[in-house]
Design brief:
single chain, alpha/beta, Four Helix Bundle (Hemerythrin (Met), subunit A), Rossmann fold, 2 domains, seven-stranded mixed β-sheet, four-stranded mixed β-sheet, 16 strands, 40% helix, globular, binds 5-S-methyl-1-O-phosphono-5-thio-D-ribulose
């Protein structure tokens, strides 16, 4: 059985430490809001849906800690702290809003009831994520030809979600349907989610995968190895622009140039209809050391200026479809997204 990305047991959140993979498979136990917040900031847990689920359990921990004092205040403070961890993936704010709303609904109830309800709410987010990913996989698998080379960027797999993944759910379901899918995984500099995480989880599942460095994607496409690209998302704006791991935009341009369809797979919790377009999506800037150093070893000269945006925005015009649990949305995305938004 696959190791779990996150697990809630006896009032403790256990997170698979993704900083150490693939060399070491180890979990980190979080018992306080601060421990969950630090785990998100330091990338113990990462990937938009996984961050959202972890934060929900963080709020449940905060509520329990507030039982002797003021549970409602404890929930608000937990949401504030967790909301400061990472700015781009909207699933985090979606989960915090949902937890805060549940607490507010129960404002007149005894504190122990509020804490129990918040634990149940976090568990619902956890379960729903798995079911949504399965549906994303089913809708997405229909787009995969019987023999496919599928290129993906970063890790939008089981490790980025509660289980199953989004982009990699498409691969998993297509293979269950008997399709021959070979994954090309971009290594994804600077944090190497592709090399360390995507390659690891696919090998664990016995799914054929070839690792390439980011600058080999054009070569692989030109050689005819890639039939489709499927990536995850951290935030989808109302017009269909998509923020995802840095380098995604370049892959989309390459796919366009080679006539290869470029798909985004994401649950509805990644859609942010309050943001008109990609220009308004906050992009996290991470430490320069991620660029100047490789595994603690300096590879760039002291004092060099560094740019380290963790995400970029792919304009909607490059996207063939957005695969959600509600189906595959097609251009014009503003209309398709608004229509699902009205039903939700
Ligand atoms: O910085 P990370 O590792 O949290 O970034 C992750 C990504 O960009 C993923 O592609 C995205 O969150 C989708 S995960 C299903």
């Amino acid at each position: 059985m696959r190791v779990k990305t996150l697990e809630w047991r006896d009032g403790t959140l256990y997170l698979l430490d993704q900083r150490k993979l693939p060399a070491v498979v180890e979990t980190v136990a979080c018992r306080t809001v601060e421990e969950v917040a630090r785990a998100i900031e330091t990338m113990v847990v990462r990937g938009a849906p996984a961050i959202g689920a972890a934060a929900a359990f963080g709020v449940a921990l905060g509520a329990r800690a507030g039982l002797k004092d003021d549970v409602q205040r404890a929930v608000t403070e937990a949401c504030q702290r967790l909301g400061q961890t990472r700015p781009t993936a909207v699933n985090l704010f979606w989960a915090l809003r949902r937890m805060q709303a549940r607490a507010s609904e129960l404002a007149c109830r005894p504190p122990s009831e509020v804490a129990a309800a918040l634990e149940a709410e976090a568990e619902a987010i956890y379960r729903e994520d798995i079911a949504q990913n399965r549906r994303i996989g089913e809708f997405g698998a229909a787009l995969v030809p019987p023999r496919a080379g599928l290129l993906t960027h970063c890790n939008a797999g089981a490790l980025a979600t509660v289980d199953y993944g989004t982009a990699l759910a498409v691969v998993r379901v297509a293979r269950e349907q008997g399709k021959e899918v070979h994954v090309y995984a971009d290594e994804t500099r600077p944090f190497l989610q592709g090399a360390r995480l995507t390659a690891w989880e696919l090998l664990e599942d016995g799914i054929p995968v070839t690792l390439i460095t980011d600058n080999m994607a054009a070569y692989a496409m030109a050689k005819g190895l890639v039939n489709l690209v499927v990536v995850g998302a951290d935030r989808v704006a109302a017009n269909g622009d998509v923020a995802n791991k840095i380098g995604t935009y370049g892959v989309a341009i390459l796919a366009r140039e080679h006539g290869i369809p470029f798909y985004v797979a994401a649950p509805w919790s990644t859609v942010d209809l309050s943001i008109p377009d990609g220009a308004a999506i906050p992009i996290e800037e991470r430490s320069p050391e991620e660029v100047t150093h490789v595994f603690g070893q300096r590879v760039a000269p002291e004092g060099v200026a560094v740019l380290n945006p963790a995400f970029d925005v792919t304009p909607h015009s490059y996207i063939a479809g957005i695969i959600t649990e509600h189906g595959v949305l097609r251009p014009p995305f503003d209309r398709a997204l608004a229509e699902v938004g009205r039903r939700e």
